[in-house]
Amino acid sequence: MTGYHAGAVATAFLALMVIPDWRIMFVVGGVAGFALVPFLWFKLPETLPAVIPLPAPGKAPKETVPAVEERASFKDLGRKPYPLVAAGVAVASFMGLLLVYGLNTWLPQLMSSAGYTLSAGLSLLLVLNVGAVAGLVVAGILADKHGTKKIVLLWFALSAIFLAALSVKIQNELLLNAAVFVTGVFVFSSQVLVYAWVSQLFPARLRGTALGFAAGVGRLGAILGPAVTGTLVAAGIAYPWGFYVFAAAAVLAVAALVLVPQAVTAAAGKRTAVGPS
Fold it and tell me: How far is CA 15 from the centre of its chain?
């Protein structure tokens, strides 16, 4: 997921170089997409090969028979213990993508409303996404070490704090860049941690369905984030209210994820949930 934000950094660099001829941005983006097609076509496999366990030393390999799993469907997410889990991660994904797209779309304008120059706002967008790349790496390491639930809750909570802090105008340029960098560290990796946790909460046969549901609901947040912020900009109250809205979204994500169990297990013929911790 760092690739997304690395691309956003490159986009911010390009924007700083081509202002005010913004049409070049679309040409570069379109050409880049076409350039990727041959690479994706020839280098990406259709599916990953099955993993066959190696035999123990001195023993002949056993013949393995692929397990036949029941075909998953969207209805499975409505069966216990999955409804609460699916609802919690969907709300968090909605709020997370609201933050990602709201900030990436409107941060320069928000900063302009606060009295900063447009070039300064674009520079801060670059800093925000550099923070995102760093945050994704750190969040992944910590989640593997301490558990995804603890880290995703902490990350969303810190996102709320730093987003609210950005509503205060910072005169010192170095301190402002540091604040935006740290905000990027927490905001963008919070959303990705939700996806990581979904892949751990659901069994393999439901993983794709659950991820699709979380991402699909999240995309509604991706639509709403820029729309709400744009409305605030049009009303002339984007600063500081835009940051208040973003901070509230992070708080709602925390509230939704607190209700999600630490882990969900499904035994043969019976599904059980492990309570929040």
Answer: 23
